[in-house]
Amino acid sequence: SQGIYTKMRKLESPLGASLLNDIGMARAIFKDLKGASKAFAEAQRIFRHTNTIETPDGCLLLMNAGNNKKALGDIDGAMKLFSEARDIRDRTSSLDTPDGVRLLVAIGTTLSEQGDQDGALEAFSEAYNLHTRMDTLDSPSAALVLNYIG
């Protein structure tokens, strides 16, 4: 797919950036974290170049890239990307989504790993409140959030 997009000169577009995000996710699933990092970095460059980072797809990329950085041991780099995604979701009123919940859980687990249990609990509580507003308290995601809250 990437080759086709490149030949058609469509890779330098938000759709191309989303494709690179998907490629990064596939590489991460198969434990090619360095390859995933390259795909995420290129997708991020395109989203920024096309001024579309402040979209749901841009936020999804930031979260995925943050999770990949976290898997590589770069907790500070991960938190920076999660924070940027959170700021964008707040500015664009797009936090109340399943991806918003996943972002808050990523923030909470990262804060917990950094030793900030109060911050982690705040993120998990906010994720739970999102589930309440979205009427998804019976979902596996809500059960996971409750497990984190304790």
Tell me about this structure.
The radius of gyration is 16 Å and the shape is globular. The model has no long low-confidence stretch (mean pLDDT 93). It is built from 8 helices and no strands. The chain is an all-alpha fold and 150 residues long. α4 (56-71) runs antiparallel to α5. The chain has helices spanning 2-7, 14-29, 33-49, 56-71, 75-91, 98-113, 117-134, 140-149.
Low-confidence runs: none
Helix amount: over 70%
List the total number of helices: 8
Shape: globular
Overall residue-averaged pLDDT value? 93
Counted beta strands: 0
Distance between the termini: 43 Å
C-alpha-based Rg, rounded: 16 Å
The chain-level structural class is mainly alpha
Largest sheet: none
| Share in β-strands | under 5%
Summarize the helix and strand pattern as letters.
Answer: HHHHHHHH
Break the fold down into its secondary structure elements and pairings.
Blueprint: H1 2-7, H2 14-29, H3 33-49, H4 56-71, H5 75-91, H6 98-113, H7 117-134, H8 140-149
What descriptive keywords fit this protein?
77% helix, mainly alpha, 150 residues
Summarize this, please?
The chain has 150 residues and is mostly helical.
